[in-house]
């Protein structure tokens, strides 16, 4: 959005309308994501479950037209602890927020893998990428928060990116013992 503001001041009159429409759409997406983030407490997440809550968020993002969204769930979804689901969801939100703000991506991909003793979520994009080490050194609080939140769970967060090649955040949580259904 900041880049569009800069472009608007130097744009030809016929392109200003396109830039203003783009800024309006981006503002709406940012606002929707912030509102969603604030409105979703643990109750909503506990009621819907992690995968369904993420699917709903991605449906909203897809409808905005900003990204083509690809969401897959592999394995049979099971509940994690409330704390695990909340922290994983916050990592998902932070990752998507970073993509919205910085990536200039066309595609957003989210993959969740449920295995008996292993849970993984990967959030990736095909945007302009970045130098991970440089971003962290420049006070990349979002990236630092992702790593710290993962550490709280005893999980591993891997952030990968290269300029011009998109980025990905992968969170892996091992030694999961999902609850058994006694139906």
Helix content: 40-55%
As an assembly, this protein is single chain
> Total helix count?
7
- Return residue spans where pLDDT drops below 50 for at least 5 consecutive residues: none
Task: Give the CA-based shape.
Answer: globular
Strand order in the largest sheet: 1-2-3-5-4
Please trace the helix and strand order, writing H or E for each element.
Answer: HHHHEHEEHHEE
Spatial separation of the terminal alpha carbons: 51 Å
Q: Give me the Rg, rounded.
A: 18 Å
Mean pLDDT: 84
| Secondary structural class | alpha+beta
Main sheet record: 5 strands, mixed
- Percent of residues in β-strands: 15-25%
**What is the strand tally?**
5
Secondary-structure topology with pairs:
Elements: H1 2-10, H2 13-39, H3 42-48, H4 50-64, E1 68-74, H5 82-102, E2 107-115, E3 118-125, H6 132-137, H7 141-153, E4 156-161, E5 167-174
Parallel strand pairs: 1-2
Antiparallel strand pairs: 2-3, 3-5, 4-5
Word description of this protein:
The structure is a single chain. The chain is of the alpha+beta class and 183 residues long. The chain is 54% helix and 21% strand. It has a 5-stranded mixed β-sheet with strand order 1-2-3-5-4, with helices on one face. Helix 2 runs antiparallel to helix 4 (50-64), helix 2 runs antiparallel to helix 5 (82-102) and helix 3 (42-48) crosses helix 4 (50-64). The radius of gyration is 18 Å and the shape is globular. The N and C termini lie far apart (51 Å).
């Amino acid at each position: 959005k900041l880049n569009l503001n800069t472009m608007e001041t130097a744009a030809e009159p016929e392109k200003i309308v396109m830039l203003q429409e783009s800024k309006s759409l981006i503002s709406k997406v940012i606002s929707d994501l912030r509102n969603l983030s604030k409105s979703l407490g643990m109750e909503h997440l506990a009621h819907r479950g992690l995968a369904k809550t993420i699917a709903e968020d991605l449906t909203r993002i897809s409808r905005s037209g900003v990204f083509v969204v690809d969401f897959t769930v592999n394995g049979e979804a099971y509940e994690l602890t409330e704390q695990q689901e909340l922290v994983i969801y916050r990592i998902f939100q932070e990752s998507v927020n970073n993509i919205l703000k910085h990536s200039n991506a066309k595609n957003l991909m989210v993959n969740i893998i449920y295995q008996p003793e292993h849970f993984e979520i990967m959030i990736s994009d095909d945007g302009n990428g970045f130098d991970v080490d440089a971003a962290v050194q420049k006070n990349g609080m979002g990236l630092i928060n992702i790593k710290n939140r993962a550490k709280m769970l005893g999980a591993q967060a891997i952030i990968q990116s290269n300029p011009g090649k998109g980025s990905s955040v992968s969170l892996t949580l091992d030694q999961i013992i999902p609850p058994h259904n006694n139906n």
